[in-house]
Write a structure and sequence with these properties.
This protein is of the alpha+beta class. A hairpin with a 2-residue loop joins strand 27 (about 535-540) and strand 28 (about 540). The protein has three domains: about 20-200, Jelly Rolls; about 215-300, Immunoglobulin-like; about 305-705, Glycosyltransferase (Alpha/alpha barrel), CATH 1.50.10. It is globular and about 85 Å long. Strands 1, 3, 4, 5, 7, 11 and 13 form a seven-stranded antiparallel β-sheet that branches. Strands 2, 6, 8, 9, 10 and 12 form a six-stranded antiparallel β-sheet that branches. The chain has a four-stranded antiparallel β-sheet with strand order 17-16-19-20, with no helix packed on it. Helix content is about 30%, strand content about 20%. The chain binds calcium ion. The site of calcium ion has 8 residues, from loops.
């Protein structure tokens, strides 16, 4: 009896354990498709003497004419002569894609132009680490190199064959490789093959799939949104999308991963009618029968409709893409599916308000979501009332994603969260049980934040960014402007229960003391703006306040989604004018494009913090910090400051770059055309500012709601004279 109870108990523990760590496991894919034509960024080609591999700038070309999974494959055209050639295809490390399915095989689809197999390349696995801040590889190791011809059966001339090599054939190579290396074998002569779906696969994910159903399609100007009932089934590898123009001849146009329930088919044509059907693909590339057919037509959209389209698509990140236990936002998608990002969630709440007001969802739907959000926030870990940067959705516990020191309160993320909550408290103003409950919950959460606790020294100078319950003030990052954290000071001063004195605005945020000046100099790498004020001209525009020449554009977005900068004036400037000038400097810099990057220009601009070819980085409009990466949120969240330049960017990004830049949740996070690289993710901090700031430009809705809060109104009234007074 005891034994059985013990067994049941440990089984229960195992279940709980699984529930706590069940992050989504991704497929380990080296190449699937590349949205941008031309060179594949994550490849590298080398050759010596009489050997050669066709390449574009030492990268492999993408082939759009032939593919196994639509719309493309990789071309490997080589010449085996004296010397050697090799082509590396590197694994792209995507933020938060940290867990993977079991790997049993190296697999790829191979298209052979001839029926010979003796010239087929060799393949090896490669493992390395990258030295920080450089391209230098360290601990570079390679497995044995195997001849592909030993693993190919039934090769067809001009046909696709699936090559599966058990990983144990690569001998003692245990870790997941960073790259796959194709290289010449001993047979001389030329060959051309195509490679598609280069990946590590599990052996055991098989099982019959049911037919897909409930497919819908909706046309926009140059694309159609194809939507289906959400499926996240372990053994569905892809959803495959077929399009027809006559409802008879269907051709495959794309694949989608099963954690999305929509696909955006960017056809680039207006006034066309299309028919769609989808199938499921399993882990052996078996395909189910097709779904029913959905029909949609594209048509030209006017400016208002284009704005609606962009606002709604970006909002979907927080709606369809939300963490299910909390209804809050994820850090990035695809990424950790359990990891809530609190600042992005505050931005998302403002996007939900816009969506309810514009009818993308009903008010009832928004109310239901807000009740879920507020009841989650009541129970999640808090640190003197402040939330952490990341929270694990299933357990509501802090998630120290940035390292073990970051296991406590994050005051800046907290202020982004409360900027959103205070907007919601004004919007949900009906005298119903549900809406009363939303307002009461938000007020309780807001009054529980001990803003003054985060004045570590209690000297009424600086707010401190983080506090940890066991490591206390170990990070010790003081909030010193000018940057994205003005909202943190404003909310701390406006708190009805735990406020900090208004004097901290000048003594902390805009401090003139040596510590603050050094802080600004260190990150700006210049004296410009090191005393908070700046006054210099950049590209013909004067900058009253700001370090360097203004910094990345998110500085003029994050604090000012609710906080109306028109209404903020201090001794130095009015912040609408200041922010507009920062946006204009950014636009003029991109128009001039001093580093001559491909694509960058007056209608393709916006340097801010985003994903990039070398990871997440804050990009600024100066030659030291600009690497050619453009994030659509930069120009689009600047709409209130630069309406014409932002609209021109929106149209150009959608109409001329939409084929690779437009997706499930609006514009993808970023693109670097110079490197032929494009983000595979959307980021929680970047999508909502697009929805919200376009709304502020159109109606001022979110600004009005935030500024209507009594505490904010009172404080702004008190603050403005105080801010204007020299002390
Ligand atoms: Ca493909």
């Amino acid at each position: 009896m005891k034994k059985i109870i013990l067994l049941i108990f440990s089984f229960y523990l195992a279940l709980v354990g699984i529930a706590q760590v069940a992050e989504r496991e991704y497929d380990y894919i080296f190449f699937e498709n590349n949205n941008l034509p031309g060179a594949y960024f994550f490849s590298e080609v080398n050759y010596t003497e009489g050997s050669y591999v066709k390449n574009i700038g030492h990268r492999l070309p993408v082939c759009d004419e032939q593919f196994f999974t639509p719309p493309n494959s990789l071309e490997l055209a080589y010449s085996n002569g004296k010397g050697n050639w090799e082509a590396n295809i590197e694994f792209e490390k995507i933020r938060g894609n940290d867990y993977f399915k079991k790997s049993d095989y190296l697999a790829f689809w191979l298209f052979n132009e001839s029926d010979r197999t003796d010239h087929l390349p060799r393949v090896a696995l490669r493992l390395f680490a990258r030295q920080r801040y450089s391209d230098l590889l360290i601990n570079d190791k390679r497995s044995v190199s195997l001849s592909i011809s030993d693993f190919v059966t039934g090769i067809k001339q001009n046909g696709w064959v699936w090559v599966k090599i058990p990983l144990e054939k690569f001998e003692d190579f245990r870790a997941r490789p960073n790259a796959i290396v194709f290289s010449n074998n001993d047979a001389s002569g030329e060959g051309k093959i195509l490679i598609d779906q280069l990946e590590l696969l599990p052996a055991d994910l098989i099982g019959k799939l049911a037919k897909p159903h409930n497919i819908k399609a909706k046309g926009y100007e140059l694309h159609v949104d194809v939507e289906w009932q959400p499926v996240e089934q372990q053994n569905i590898k892809y959803i495959k999308i077929y399009r027809s123009e006559d409802n008879k001849a269907f051709k495959p146009v794309g694949i989608q991963r099963p954690y999305f329930n929509r696909y955006t088919d960017f056809t680039g044509e207006t006034d066309k009618t299309y028919y769609y059907k989808i199938t499921y693909i399993d882990y052996e590339y078996n395909e189910t029968v097709a779904s029913d057919i959905a029909k949609a037509s594209t048509r030209e959209l006017d400016d208002e409709e284009l704005l609606n389209m962009v606002q709604e698509a970006s909002f979907r990140y927080y709606w369809e893409g939300a963490e299910p236990n909390s209804g809050l936002a994820l850090e990035n998608i695809p990424g950790r599916k359990n990891m809530i990002a609190t600042g992005a969630s505050g931005f998302g709440i403002m996007a939900i308000v816009v969506a309810a007001e514009r009818g993308f969802i009903t008010r009832e739907q928004a109310v239901k979501r807000m009740l879920k959000i507020t009841s989650f926030l009541k129970k999640c870990d808090k640190f003197h009332g402040a939330v952490s940067h990341f929270i694990d959705g299933p357990t509501a516990k802090v998630e120290p994603f940035f390292g073990e020191r970051d296991n406590g309160g994050d005051l800046v993320e907290t202020s982004f969260m409360f900027q959103g909550l205070l907007v919601a408290r004004q919007y949900f103003d009906q005298n119903t049980t549900e809406e009363n409950k939303i307002r009461d919950s938000i007020t309780k959460l807001w009054e529980a934040v001990e803003w003054n606790w985060y004045d570590r020294e209690k000297e009424n100078k600086y707010l401190t960014w983080h506090w940890s319950p066991d490591k206390e003030w170990i990070i010790d990052h003081k909030l010193i402007g000018w940057n994205e954290t003005m909202i943190t000071y404003i909310l701390a001063m406006a708190s009805p229960t735990h406020p900090v004195p208004v004097s901290m605005y000048y003594n902390g945020w805009a401090s003139q003391e040596e510590r603050a000046v050094k802080y600004r100099k260190d990150w700006g790498k210049t004296n410009d703006g090191s005393f908070y004020t700046n006054g210099n001209y950049y590209h013909g525009i004067q900058l009253p306040v700001g370090v360097s020449n203004g910094g990345p554009l998110f500085f003029v977005h994050y604090s000012y989604m609710g906080l109306d900068p028109h209404k903020l004036t201090d001794n130095y400037t009015n912040y609408f004018e200041n922010n507009r000038n920062i946006a204009l400097i950014n636009w003029r810099y991109c128009s001039e494009n001093p580093k001559n990057y491909k694509g960058m220009g007056k209608d393709f601009w916006g340097l801010t913090a985003s994903d990039g070819p070398w990871g997440y980085q804050a990009i600024e409009p100066n030659v030291e910090n600009d690497n050619g990466t453009i994030a659509p949120t930069g120009a689009l969240a600047s709409f209130p400051y630069t309406p014409q330049q932002s609209m021109a960017a929106l149209k150009n990004m959608y109409r001329n770059h939409g084929r690779y830049l437009w997706g499930e949740y609006g514009f993808k996070d970023a693109v670097n055309l110079d490197q032929n690289w494009q983000a595979k993710i959307y980021m929680g901090l970047n999508q909502a500012p697009v929805t919200v700031m376009i709304e502020n430009y159109r109606t001022g809705l979110i600004w009005d709601l935030f500024m209507k809060n009594e505490e904010i109104k009172e404080q702004i009234n008190k603050m403005n004279p105080a801010l204007k007074k020299k002390n």
